[in-house]
Amino acid sequence: MPSSRITGELRRRVFESARFRCGYCQTSQLVIGPLLELDHIIPEGRGGASEENNLWVACPLCNSRKSDRIEGLDPESGAMVRFYNPRVDVWSENFEWIESGAIINGKTDIGRATVYALEMNHPNIVSARQLWIIAGWHPPKDE
Ligand SMILES: [Zn+2]
Predict the structure, then answer these.
(1) How many CB atoms lie within 10 A of CB 138?
(2) I need a labelling partner for 137 at 20 to 30 A (CA). Which of 31, 34, 49, 85 fits?
(3) 79 has pLDDT over 90
(4) Which three-class secondary structure state does DSSP give residue 54?
């Protein structure tokens, strides 16, 4: 089913499950200007369905970098590994905040490949995180 068929009800359920945060970089809708987007975990172009179990929330930066990919290079091992799946993987097992929350460090091959491919430490977002830290809005306390 094409994404145009995703109902408002399904969209709302996915956003609530994701707590209105990017499943990858954890950026909250409360602190980012542009609207968070629905992410097809397995992209539609690769046969991923527009069904709840394949949908999560991503910020425009992560979503555009992820694009139609499902795997990336682990810069440590040089191996291609699948991306982090926000529906089945645990964020804190694969990533950690360092530098007071300004930087996301990949703890596993999946975490490193996802950080690298999605440019989760792009200078623009790191600058924003540094301001959110000063304001006390970041990093999220529960993950
Ligand atoms: Zn993100």
Answers:
(1) 21
(2) 85
(3) yes
(4) helix
